[in-house]
Inverse folding.
């Protein structure tokens, strides 16, 4: 099972500007490429900030001051690595309350940009592809169980698991693995079991049998 990485989802060869790029040039680039922000890089192509539409509007309404990328940009910049998972990148966006992440290589140089809309592509994955990955990777390869007694239904990313598992203890692992598959929005557990959880069985065996009543005096 392979989750798509930042490298898979990012927009490569990102448009970038220098700290000295003017207000009008930045506005032109945002319009030309249909983007809402642009990374600011130094002479070594390392991100030093980001200029967004909101930054341009703030500078436009403010009085005085230089109208260059270096003066308007948000800094320090939060970056992502190409090997990160989409979940790691999404958590970083949420923690720093940003809508996009410049992606840098091992040398810190800009190689792309990951936006919220890029992450949303995960949830546009076809239901059939999700179902096949759960059957082949989760059920057969990872859990090593036969899919014959199981039914996996996927509708708009919502996975419904039904059928019979050998042991109840497998169910929470099964659900967690399904939740980690790219494109899964929700997992509904409607599974039944041949045997109850081993821990529960053990607990039952430790309970004194009600049939064994103390002898009468």
């Amino acid at each position: 099972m392979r989750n798509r990485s930042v490298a898979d989802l990012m927009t490569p060869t990102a448009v970038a500007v220098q700290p000295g790029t003017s207000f009008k040039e930045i506005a032109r680039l945002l319009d030309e490429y249909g983007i809402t922000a642009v990374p600011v890089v130094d002479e070594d192509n390392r991100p030093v900030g980001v200029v967004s539409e909101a930054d341009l509007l703030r500078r436009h309404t403010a009085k005085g001051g230089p109208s260059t990328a270096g003066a308007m940009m948000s800094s320090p910049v939060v970056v992502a690595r190409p090997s990160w998972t989409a979940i790691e990148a999404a958590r970083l966006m949420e923690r720093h309350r940003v809508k996009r992440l410049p992606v840098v290589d091992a040398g810190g140089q800009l190689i792309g940009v990951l936006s919220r809309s890029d992450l949303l592509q995960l949830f546009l994955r076809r239901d059939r592809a999700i179902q096949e990955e759960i059957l082949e990777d989760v059920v057969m390869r990872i859990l090593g169980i036969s899919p014959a007694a199981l039914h996996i239904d996927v509708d708009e990313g919502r996975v419904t698991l039904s059928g019979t598992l050998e042991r109840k203890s497998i169910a929470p692992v099964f659900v967690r693995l399904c939740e980690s598959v790219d494109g899964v929005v929700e997992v509904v557990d409607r599974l039944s079991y041949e045997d109850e959880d081993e821990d529960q069985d053990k607990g039952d065996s430790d309970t004194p049998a009600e049939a064994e009543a103390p002898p009468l005096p």
In short: DSSP finds nine helices and eight strands in the chain. The first strand starts at residue 11 and ends at 12.
